[in-house]
Design a protein that fits this description.
This protein is mainly alpha-helical. The protein is about 55% helix and about 5% strand. It has one domain. It starts with 5 loop residues before the first helix and ends with a helix. The chain contains 3 helices and 2 strands. About 10% of the residues have low confidence. It is flat, with a radius of gyration of 19 Å.
């Protein structure tokens, strides 16, 4: 297994964020579609556990995931009111998710900028 680099991890998270934003946009676009069920994708933590299983060398360490792939799945419909049309999309929840994606993009960018500055300062000295 190759070592996981910071830039590779940031790239993977940005890809995941783009997929999640596409699913959120689809939910918002179908907010008035009769019978449409809101969807979401697995959390980034779960995806990383499944794609990069960690070896357990001690019983007190974390265990690895089961290795399945990213799939869109039905969202948590307990928070959304199901309308007479059968639609359970909550625009409020979708906008909150969209804001979370934006904050994660921003955090990713700030971490990469700090790491880049750190690398530049090391190479100049």
């Amino acid at each position: 297994m190759q070592p996981l680099q910071l830039f590779d991890l940031a790239f993977r998270q940005n890809e995941w964020l783009a997929q999640r934003q596409a699913v959120i946009a689809s939910n918002i676009a179908n907010a008035n579609t009769p019978g449409y069920k809101a969807k979401d994708i697995e959390s980034f933590d779960e995806v990383m556990r499944k794609t990069l299983p960690m070896s357990v060398t001690d019983a007190q360490h974390l265990s690895s995931g089961d290795g399945s792939s990213i799939l869109a799945h039905e969202g948590n419909s307990t928070h959304a009111e199901i309308l007479y049309s059968g639609n359970d999309v909550s625009l409020e929840d979708e906008f909150l998710k969209s804001g979370e994606v934006m904050r994660n993009y921003s955090m990713n960018t700030q971490i990469l900028k700090a790491f880049s500055r750190m690398l530049q300062s090391v190479t100049k000295a």
